[in-house]
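Standup notes
- HV: blocked on the assembly model, inputs below
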Amino acid sequence: MLKKWLVTTKNLFFPAVCLACGKKIKQDYLCSSCKKKIKILKAPTCYTQLKINHNNNKEILTVLSSCLYKEPLKNLIHSFKYKRNPYLAEFFSRFMLKQLKVIKFNPQNYDFVVPVPLHRYKIKARGYNQAELLARPLAKYFQLPLKDDIIISKYIKNSQTKLSSRKRKENVQGKFIVRKNLKNQNIILVDDVLTTGATISTCWQALSEKGANKIYSTTLAK
Ligand SMILES: [Zn+2]
């Protein structure tokens, strides 16, 4: 089923050269040797366990990641996020779908897919929310609705990238607002890169506080 979906996806854009080494290629984004350099994470390293304080209880949030955040993937993700290359989502989502298949993820009982939100100012500047572009093919594959309007991001002044782990946590506290009651809803939460886990944990907490039952978190890289 995975293969069928990839083949039948229409209107794909291919750059004609390997985006890492510049070698001429057909119908892909990286040449085969650069593609081999992308490190696919295997169990148990594909899982990250994050400690969360939730309703005065300590809980463990497990996040599944597909690849290691290093070259040549790192530069591709940078170009996806900051250089208006939304078409790369198709390439990246292949890794995410493969990983979900490898771990035998069962989408049954999940109600919808939610991307980690980006503030509307950032979406305006960037042209899109990269997490949403990654979540879309996953939702399509699992035949689940994609909901990009139930959780929104409030404006934050500081960029996360240059902050320490503790500062990141402080920076994202109360950053997300969930606009719907999610009682008994099971959600697949998607983001691009897992760094300290502050963003995805805060998102998880916001969804849980609105009653979400089960939340499966997955990222492209870590
Ligand atoms: Zn190459």
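- HV (later): unblocked. Residues 2-221 form a domain with the Rossmann fold fold (CATH 3.40.50). The longest strand covers residues 57-67.
- Next: hand off to the docking folks.
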